[in-house]
Specification:
Oligomer: heterotrimer
Number of domains of chain B: 1
Chains: A alpha/beta (385), B mainly beta (151), C alpha/beta (355)
Shape of chain C: globular
Order of helices and strands of chain C: EHEHEHEHHHHEEEEHEHEHEHEE
Order of helices and strands of chain B: HEEEEEEEEHEE
GO biological process, one term (chain C): isoprenoid biosynthetic process
CATH architecture of the largest domain in chain C: 3-Layer(aba) Sandwich
Strand order of the largest sheet of chain B: 8-7-6-9-10
Number of helices of chain B: 2
Protein name (chain C): Thiolase family protein
Strand order of the largest sheet of chain C: 3-2-4-8-1-9-13-12-10
Helix content of chain C: 25-40%
Structural class of chain B: mainly beta
InterPro entries (chain C): Thiolase, Thiolase-like, Thiolase_C_2
Radius of gyration of chain C: 19 Å
Keywords (chain C): Isoprene biosynthesis
Radius of gyration of chain B: 19 Å
Shape of chain B: globular
Distance between the termini of chain C: 16 Å
GO molecular function (chain C): acyltransferase activity, transferring groups other than amino-acyl groups
Structural class of chain C: alpha/beta
């Protein structure tokens, strides 16, 4: 059963949306998606809701937010860490692909700005028995990746800084992006070291906002719009928990395995050639480099050169994160859905920072202690796959 | 009209049961022993020890003592203070101990942490390190103060 | 295309000294053994259970996924009582899975559950009043008893019946019988609810192996079909009636519609009676008893002992589901309905099973 994205809405992401409460932010995103699709809430048959509870200081926020989703509809809550945004999309996609529903909305919200400091919250994800004492948060884990990659492939701090330059430049064109700052390589290199070797401008912000994506079954999708974004393939993978189990921090092999499965399902033989644009979950500069290599867009050790050489800029051969990506906007539990929605906009031809002629897009999210990945391929041409 | 903000704290106590495997590991620390388990199917020695091997999906009950020295896989030095987390600077890393097939998260220390480039040079991936133990051990993960470069 | 249960595994339900993921491992292993397959034959893992405060670990599925056997496989988690994961498992099997494991993890003993549930209330209007779950359930009980003039003794008799059932179920947590006097003399938790009128928290995990029909028939000769599922939600704000559970009715209607069945075909019920009053209200909402008379229902309900005997925060619904499935497998009944609830009696999921 073919399923397509027929609407995408998001709220302008800020450090803190003081003007709205939790369900009110969700309401805003839902209305934005409905407007994009030209639909009303009563048309939606089911809702899949995603959020990482602790950041927002509300336990099981779906209970409160159900008031914004259309009471009495079947509403399902998904929560899988950083991949939440995309697993919510995946679950909503399956609601329709199963044949049980024709029109389903995925909605994700995260108000990281409500939480005074995100790292201690992330620290609660780390095993209290063996590891929590280390004060580990997300930045440390990315720093581990950076240290290992730089030692193995000789990448320089400057190589990594170029990823930040690219993402910030792209974000300037995205009306919804959180951080809008034109930064140069020196700005990045001179910013304060947070967890070595990563510096402040190489790290994602804490963002507050919501996003919603509407999925429709094939016939309905064609009636709703003439440029739906077809979901060609999706996959998710789960590795073991302990950080020390990773074979190498300089490679992301679990992502490579997921990528192989995704491309096989999508009928893509040469990702570098066949994918026109990718929205990757790169919360820290180093992660994009690892993701490019894991997904086969760059050979091992070459990912470090792509930003510097312009390959991943909007007019390069392999544009990534034209929306500005996670480095400029990170409402953690919703981020995956924003990636997915932005990828959909690209193949619809409606993105604010549009890649010329994009027909096939890839969307990615990762979560846990480098443990989970969720991937999807969207296409404007339903013949693909 | 100024929008009100409510400051709220979550103060929720938990008592986490470590289970048999972790308890045995912590008892081992009292004797300056680092214990792992070997999976009977894949043969990997897993540190920290756990009740089952994820790869083979079988229970792991064969105990193995690994050395308290090994090789650095990666590290980072933290310079920013985060609410409720240790005061900076502190260095954490993943160390693969001799005899283990998986790395273990731990503190790195015994050196001046103010210049991260120096620390990264001292502890670069591949460097051999060994545990510095607390004098009075309590059967907690902090019985190992940190790992320092092996001389 | 039918979807059926081909394997079931229970951990013990009690107070565990092992972390929840080790308990989950036991349930997963048993389910695989029961189905006679390896974890490699399972292509999708749908986890059900609470996150962060529920088990004291944020992203709790990081620990539960490897326990289920999801190493380098597809895994997703429904963050709610695990019965709510069943619809997703069904949908995944209909769209792209051959064999799916549903793993339910529930762990209460490490957690101050009432304090945790309190954090689900908005911090502006409701949380500052410290309206805990027992207090809210008590408000419902009070409304129910007043509205329909139900004597406490009748509700005590419900508890006695449920505890009798629990005493005959080796899988249940509470296996001691109680007498009406025991119930009516037990201390007040929040007026009018007494301790023995409420479910007690425990730990425990359940795993089920489900498969699409063609493959199911290769795995098992004794398949329990999932004919229909339904789920619905009530208003979060107290703009609702306290003595009724219309969202339970809606979830059941959706399940009946999908199953193309009606009440008459259902021989046995497993319902999430977190209190004796809920036992009555749910029966009434499901249409098996008249309004206000759920306490006199003498049909086949909660032969497992219900939630009143086994309530592991997160896996209660799956426990009820698995118990019903086992009965159908043994041929005791051929069609049953299972219902679960979460939140401040706000969300409900219902499933209809058939042999």
């Amino acid at each position: 059963m073919r399923v397509a994205v027929v609407g995408f809405g998001q709220t302008p992401f800020k450090t803190k949306r003081k003007d709205k409460t939790h369900p009110e932010i969700v309401f805003e995103a839902i209305n934005s998606a409905l407007e994009h699709a030209g639909l009303e809430l009563k048309d939606i048959e089911a809702v899949v809701y995603g959020c990482m509870d602790p950041f927002d200081g509300i336990y099981c926020p779906e209970r409160w937010d159900s008031t914004a989703c259309g009471l009495e509809k079947p509403i399902m809550k998904i929560s899988t860490g950083g991949t939440t945004g995309m697993t919510t999309a995946l679950a909503a996609h399956e609601h329709v692909a199963s044949g049980l529903f024709d029109l389903v909305m995925a909605v994700c919200v995260q108000r990281v700005g409500e939480c005074v400091d995100a790292q201690p919250v992330l620290n609660t994800a780390v095993d209290p028995i063996y590891e929590r004492h280390s004060g580990l948060g997300a930045i440390h884990i990315a720093a581990f990746q950076a240290t290992a990659y730089m030692a193995k492939y000789g990448a320089t701090e400057e190589d990594l800084a170029w990823v930040s330059v690219k993402d910030h430049k792209n974000a300037l064109k995205n009306p919804y992006a959180h951080i809008k700052m034109d930064v140069g390589v020196d700005d990045v290199l001179n910013s304060k070291v947070v967890c070595s070797p990563l510096k402040l401008l190489e790290c994602c912000p804490r963002s507050d906002g919501a996003a919603a994506v509407i999925f429709a079954s094939e016939d309905l999708a064609k009636k709703i719009r003439d440029n739906p974004a077809w979901v060609v393939a999706e996959t998710t993978i789960s590795d073991s928990y302990y950080l020390g189990d990773r074979l190498s921090f300089a490679e992301w092999d679990s992502l490579a395995i997921a990528g192989r499965r995704l491309f096989r399902d999508a009928g893509i033989e040469n990702p570098a050639k066949d994918i026109d644009v990718a929205e990757l979950y790169s919360a820290f500069t180093i992660q994009e480099i690892l993701e490019l290599e894991a997904l086969g867009f760059a050979e091992k050790g070459r990912g470090k050169d792509f930003a510097r050489e312009g390959v991943t800029f909007i007019d390069g051969d392999m544009p990534t994160n034209p929306s500005g990506g996670v480095l400029c906007t990170n409402p953690i539990g919703a981020t995956g859905l924003v990636r997915f929605g932005e990828a959909a906009l690209q193949v619809m031809g409606e993105a604010a920072n549009q890649v010329d002629g994009a027909e096939v897009a890839l969307s990615h999210a990762w979560g846990g202690t480098l443990q989970f990945h969720t991937l999807a391929v969207l296409s404007s041409n339903k013949k693909l796959g | 009209m100024e929008i009100k903000e409510f400051e709220v704290w979550w103060k929720i106590p938990f008592k986490h049961s470590a289970g048999i495997h972790a308890t045995k590991f912590f008892e081992g620390l009292k004797d300056r022993k680092i214990l792992g388990v070997r999976c009977e199917k894949c043969g990997r020695v897993l540190v920290p020890p756990r009740a089952f091997c994820e790869r083979c999906h079988v229970e792991t009950n064969e105990w193995v003592e690994v050395k308290d020295e090994g090789v650095v896989e990666t590290l980072t030095v933290t310079y920013m203070k985060f609410t409720g987390l240790p005061d900076p600077p502190y260095a954490v890393g993943v160390v693969k101990l001799d005899g283990a097939d998986t790395g273990m998260l731990c503190f790195l220390g015994g050196v001046d942490l103010s210049d991260w480039r120096k620390v990264h040079e001292t502890f670069k991936p591949g460097t051999r390190v060994r545990a510095v133990w607390k004098e009075e051990r309590e059967g907690k993960i902090t019985d190992i103060l940190y790992f320092e470069p092996s001389k | 295309m039918k979807i059926g249960i081909v394997g079931v595994g229970f951990s013990e339900f009690g107070i565990h000294r092992e972390p929840f993921y080790n308990v989950a491992f036991t349930a997963a292993k048993r389910a695989l053994e029961d189905a006679g397959i390896d974890r490699g034959e399972v292509d999708s893992f749908i986890l059900g259970g609470y996150d962060n405060l529920g088990v004291g670990r944020t992203i709790s599925n990081m620990y539960a996924a490897p326990a289920a056997g999801a190493y380098l496989r597809h895994e997703i988690r429904v963050s709610d009582d695990a019965l709510f994961a069943l619809p997703l498992a069904l949908m995944r099997l209909k769209s792209r899975s051959d064999v799916t494991m549903l793993l339910a993890f529930g762990h209460s003993s490490e957690t101050p559950v009432e304090l945790v549930e309190l954090q689900s209330l908005d911090p502006f209007f409701h949380r500052p009043l410290n309206l805990t779950l027992p207090a809210f359930f008590a408000m419902q009980s009070y409304a129910y008893r007043e509205r329909y003039n139900v004597e406490e003794e009748k509700l005590a008799e419900v508890v006695v019946r449920m505890r009798d059932n629990g005493s005959e179920n080796p899988l249940a947590f509470l296996k001691d019988k109680v007498k009406v006097e025991d119930v009516m003399n037990s201390e007040f938790v929040s007026y009018p609810l007494r301790k023995l009128e409420m479910a007690e928290w425990c730990d425990g995990c359940v795993a089920l192996i489900l498969a699409e029909e063609t493959i199911a028939r290769r795995i098992s000769d004794n398949i329990v079909w999932v004919d229909g599922v339904g789920w619905s939600v009530e208003n979060y704000y107290f703009d609702r009636e306290f003595h009724k559970l219309p969202f339970v009715t809606k979830s059941a209607e959706m399940a009946f519609r999908m199953a193309r069945k009606d009440r008459k075909g259902v021989e046995a019920l497993e319902i999430c009676d977190l209190t004796a009053d809920h036992h009555c209200m749910i029966l009434e909402a499901l249409g098996f008893a008249e309004e206000g008379r759920g306490w006199e229902y003498n049909g086949d309900v909660n032969s497992s002992g219900g939630a009143l005997c086994t309530n592991a925060y997160g896996s209660t619904g799956a426990f009820l589901l698995a118990n019903l499935a086992m009965r159908i497998r043994k041929g005791e009944v051929s069609c049953g309905l299972v219902q679960s609830m979460s939140g401040y009696a706000q969300r409900s999921c219902t499933a209809i099973l058939e042999g």
